[in-house]
């Protein structure tokens, strides 16, 4: 029980607030930029090279669209189009949505990092971290959908697979919600402490100013 409590405290812990937090911000900015670049690269590759590959050219290198589907389904597919899309339109739509959303969120994070947007120890950094967290979750879901398409054994148990995905995503959402709630509370405490410190300094400076006048 003590191990569980200590683990929970570690997950929601936040860096100690101090006046000189430049190193923390620099490290945080670098980590977020690196993560955004890696996720954008993986999502880009997944989008242009979908699971299962693409329809190949016909006889003699023909690129004309066939009258019937080359993958054994009713929907015809032209050379260069995704095999996944020809076999499972709904599954491919889910894969492309999650993968494209992950790619766009990562690109947005990359632009924010390299554009010089000031990321102080506050809500801008928190928003960027949330952006990348959502991007990673979407990338994990797109990976799961691609794996489901490629693995015949998993396709035999679609209900169990979906339940696993729902439980996994729900766990991540709850974990991230606790983490970001702790960060927001920490930011509010830091802001309140600074306001109290400014008020104390103002009160202390008032008698000195009156004496000098």
UniProtKB/TrEMBL annotation:
<feature type="transmembrane region" description="Helical">
    <location>
        <begin position="92"/>
        <end position="114"/>
    </location>
</feature>
<keyword id="KW-1133">Transmembrane helix</keyword>
<dbReference type="InterPro" id="IPR026961">
    <property type="entry name" value="PGG_dom"/>
</dbReference>
<keyword id="KW-0812">Transmembrane</keyword>
<feature type="transmembrane region" description="Helical">
    <location>
        <begin position="126"/>
        <end position="145"/>
    </location>
</feature>
<dbReference type="GO" id="GO:0005886">
    <property type="term" value="C:plasma membrane"/>
</dbReference>
<protein>
    <recommendedName>
        <fullName>PGG domain-containing protein</fullName>
    </recommendedName>
</protein>
<dbReference type="Pfam" id="PF13962">
    <property type="entry name" value="PGG"/>
</dbReference>
<keyword id="KW-0472">Membrane</keyword>
<keyword id="KW-0040">ANK repeat</keyword>
<feature type="transmembrane region" description="Helical">
    <location>
        <begin position="165"/>
        <end position="187"/>
    </location>
</feature>
<feature type="domain" description="PGG">
    <location>
        <begin position="23"/>
        <end position="148"/>
    </location>
</feature>
<keyword id="KW-0677">Repeat</keyword>
């Amino acid at each position: 029980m003590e191990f569980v409590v200590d683990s929970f405290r570690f997950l929601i812990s936040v860096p100690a607030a101090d006046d000189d937090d430049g190193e923390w911000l620099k490290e945080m900015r670098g980590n977020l930029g690196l993560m955004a670049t890696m996720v954008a690269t993986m999502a880009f590759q997944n989008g242009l090279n979908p699971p299962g590959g693409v329809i190949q050219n016909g006889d003699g290198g023909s690129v004309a669209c066939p009258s019937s589907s080359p993958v054994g389904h009713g929907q015809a597919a032209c050379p260069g189009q995704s095999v996944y899309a020809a076999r499972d339109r709904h599954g491919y739509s889910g894969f492309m949505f999650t993968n494209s959303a992950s790619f766009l969120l990562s690109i947005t994070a990359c632009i924010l990092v390299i554009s010089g947007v000031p990321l102080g120890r506050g809500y801008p950094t928190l928003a960027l971290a949330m952006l990348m967290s959502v991007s990673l979750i979407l990338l994990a879901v797109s990976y799961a959908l691609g794996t489901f398409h490629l693995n015949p054994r998993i396709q035999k148990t679609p209900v169990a697979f979906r339940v696993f995905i729902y439980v996994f995503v729900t766990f991540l959402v709850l974990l991230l919600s606790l983490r970001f709630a702790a960060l927001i509370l920490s930011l509010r405490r830091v802001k309140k402490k600074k306001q109290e410190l400014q008020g104390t300094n103002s009160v202390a400076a008032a008698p000195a100013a009156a004496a000098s006048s």
